[in-house]
Write a structure and sequence with these properties.
Keywords: Membrane, Transferase, Transmembrane, Transmembrane helix. One of its GO terms (biological process) is phospholipid biosynthetic process. GO terms for molecular function: phosphotransferase activity, for other substituted phosphate groups. This is CDP-alcohol phosphatidyltransferase family protein. It comes from Labilithrix luteola. There is one protein chain. By secondary structure, the protein is mostly helical. It has one domain (about 5-315): CDP-alcohol phosphotransferase transmembrane (TM) domain (Four Helix Bundle (Hemerythrin (Met), subunit A)), CATH 1.20.120.1760. It has 13 helices and no strands. It is globular. The two termini are about 35 Å apart.
C-alpha cells in the first residue's frame, strides 16, 4: 500500500523534515548541471519563440531522435568539420530533449506514454551514437580490429543504458516525493494499468510498464514501513540525503554524453569513450550503494533498534 508524506512521521520519524519550499529547492539538484545551467534555459527560450507552433511534445521527440541519428552519422564519417557539426547536432538534440518536456508541461500534455516515448527516443539516439563512434574508431585508427572495438562499444552502450535506467528511477522517486509528497512511479504505473484494462494500451504503454517494474525490482531499497515517500520526506534535511540528491544529479548519463560530445569535438573519440565508461561505472555503483544506505539499510536498522528498545521498555 502506498503511503502519503503526511504519514511519514508515524513511520520513520520527522526529526529531519524540512519545509516544502526547501524540499523543492533541494529537488532542483536532481537535474544534471549542464541541463540546469544552459539546456533547460535554452529550451525555455525556445518555448517563447516556437511554443505557438502546432507541434506536440511527441513531434519534438521524433525530431530530437532524428537529429541524434544525423549527428551519429557524421561521427561515423568523421572528418574534422563533420565532427564539429556532429557536436552541434548532438548538443542541439540535448536541448530538444529538454524542450519536449518543457513543451508538454506548457501545453498540459504530459503523460506516461509521452515520457516512455522520450525514453525510447533517447535510447535510439544513444544506440546510433555508439555505432557511429565504433565506426569512427575503426576507420580512423589503422590496425584496429573491428571485434574488440565493437565489444567496447557494446559495453559502453550497456553502461549508459543502466545509468539512464537508474537515474530515471531515482529522479522520479526522489523528485516526486520532495516536490509533491507523492509517488510518481506508482501513479504512472496505475495510469498505464488502467489503459491496459480499458483495452487502449499501445505497445509503448506496455513497454513503459515493463520498464517501470524492472526499475522497482533493481533499484528500490527497503523502506521503513514500506513507505518510500515518507522516508524521503522525513529525511530530506539530513546531510546524507542532501548529498544523495546531488549525487543522483551527477549520475545522469547526460553528464557522460557531454564528455563524449567534447571528445567528438576535439577528435578524441576513443579517449572520450574510455572516460565516459569509467565515469558511468563509478557513478552507477556509488548511487546504488548510497541509496540503500541512506534510505534503506540504515532506516531498517533504526526500525529494528526502535522496536527492540520499545520491547525492552515494555518488559521493564
Amino acid at each position: 500500500m502506498a503511503h502519503s508524506a503526511d504519514e511519514s512521521s508515524s513511520l520513520v520519524g520527522s526529526g529531519a523534515t524540512i519545509s516544502l519550499e526547501e524540499r523543492r529547492a533541494l529537488a532542483e539538484n536532481l537535474d544534471d548541471p549542464l541541463n540546469r545551467w544552459y539546456r533547460y534555459p535554452a529550451a525555455r527560450a525556445l518555448l517563447r519563440v516556437a511554443g505557438g507552433l502546432p507541434l506536440r511534445p511527441d513531434h519534438i521527440t521524433y525530431i530530437h531522435t532524428l537529429v541524434g541519428i544525423a549527428g551519429a552519422t557524421l561521427v561515423a564519417f568523421g572528418s574534422r568539420w563533420q565532427l564539429v557539426v556532429a557536436f552541434l547536432f548532438l548538443e542541439a538534440r540535448m536541448v530538444l530533449d529538454c524542450y519536449d518536456g518543457v513543451l508538454a508541461r506548457a501545453k498540459k500534455l504530459s503523460s506516461p506514454r509521452g515520457r516512455t516515448l522520450d525514453e525510447l527516443g533517447d535510447a535510439v539516439g544513444f544506440i546510433a551514437l555508439c555505432i557511429g563512434m565504433t565506426v569512427h574508431v575503426y576507420r580512423h585508427r589503422p590496425g584496429t580490429e573491428l571485434g574488440p572495438i565493437a565489444a567496447f562499444g557494446a559495453i559502453l552502450l550497456a553502461t549508459g543504458a543502466m545509468n539512464g535506467h537508474a537515474y530515471d528511477f531515482y529522479k522520479r522517486r526522489l523528485g516526486s516525493a520532495l516536490r509533491d509528497g507523492r509517488d510518481a512511479i506508482a501513479d504512472e504505473l496505475e495510469q498505464k494499468y488502467a489503459l491496459v484494462r480499458s483495452g487502449r494500451a499501445t505497445g509503448i504503454t506496455r513497454f513503459g510498464i515493463w520498464f517501470d517494474r524492472w526499475q522497482v525490482r533493481l533499484y528500490e531499497p527497503r523502506y521503513v514501513g514500506g513507505n518510500a515517500v515518507g522516508t524521503v520526506v522525513s529525511r530530506a534535511g539530513t546531510p546524507s540525503v542532501r548529498f544523495l540528491v546531488k549525487l543522483i544529479g551527477v549520475l545522469s548519463w547526460d553528464n557522460a554524453l557531454a564528455l563524449l560530445h567534447i571528445g567528438i569535438l576535439f577528435g578524441a573519440v576513443l579517449n572520450a569513450e574510455i572516460v565516459a565508461l569509467g565515469y558511468g561505472f563509478v557513478m552507477f555503483t556509488s548511487a546504488l550503494v548510497l541509496t540503500r544506505r541512506v534510505l534503506g539499510t540504515r532506516g531498517a536498522a533504526e526500525a529494528r533498534t526502535t522496536k527492540l528498545d520499545a520491547g525492552a521498555g515494555g518488559d521493564a
